[in-house]
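Appendix B, example 12.
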Amino acid sequence: MTLNGVIDVSSIVDLSTEHQSLLSRVGEVARGCAERADEYDRTARFPAEDFADLFAAGLHAPTVPTEHGGLGVGPVRGDALTLWLMTKELAKADLSLGRCWEGHANSLLLIDALGAPEQQARWFAGVVERGEIWVGWSGEPQARKPGEKQRFGTYVTRTDGGWILTGTKGFATSATGANWAILLVNTAGPGGARHADSGADSLLMLACDLSDPTVTVDDTWWDPIGMRATVSHLVKFDGTFLPDENVIGPPGAYVRDGWQTAMIPHYAASFLGAAEGAYEYAVEYVMRQGKGADPYVQQRVGSMAVNVESGHLWLRHIARLWDTGRRDEARLAGSRARHVVEHLALETVDHCIRACGARSLVRPSPVERILRDL
């Protein structure tokens, strides 16, 4: 068995020369991001330099349509796989970066799908010309964990020319790095998109300029075991005014039209990136240690390769469903893929650790970080 640590993605998913070139550019940026990943994880800081590099490389606007200066990829534009493979490359370098990137790309996707033309022109220009970073926040879980005093939730009230928002959101990814957030808020009370008892029609999507002084970040709450550099802090809104011109789409469109399901395979892409990162680490490690001829090691590495290739095939399958307009099938299959690829990733990391030994879990090994992030 020959161990080379390289998965030939183009042979699995039939990429065009143009797409191969694009992913090569992403991979080049990602290698620089990987060098910073440990420091971002240790300090729990937003990967600002990574986003700056993506902007400088012309990769910062993936789901912005080409007529607005973006790359025009993603499930809205009939090229879902390219977006997901871009995300996979970044998540391979740093899973926290991959998650922040997901939030950015998915927010721009929603603006493309549901935003008014004047909204698109205004906000896409900020992304393409100035490198503005977007994110989407819904998190308002209503059940408190043991010992938790903070209750999450927002209240939105109608006023002349817009809405007034008060309250808090948790798990606010990119809280100290994003310029704009799409807030999913419920006119019926706390709960956001996932935890509210009301129907879909009470859910609004409001774009919020995060430089507003009424928006503050509590960075003491986010102290997790993994995904530290997502800086998914607690964000507080103290009478924040959101004008009508910042309302995205009709009430309830996010749930009623199933836009969350367009993003579920995006999670799978990040999981796949983590798996591929562990696989590449394992192959390099065992070859350096002269263990490539060990049948036990070969079995582990072979299983990892099958898992990574299987994840790519799942993404290709879901992308074809989205790109050919088979949306009902794509939504169901996408949820299956997210579940399967998560398990493939966890199994791959386990194979990596067992093939490489305990030293793979000693910092600054990327495997130690990948395990915690997963």
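The beta strands are 134-137, 153-159, 162-172, 180-186, 203-209, 215-218, 233-243. The chain has a mean pLDDT of 93.
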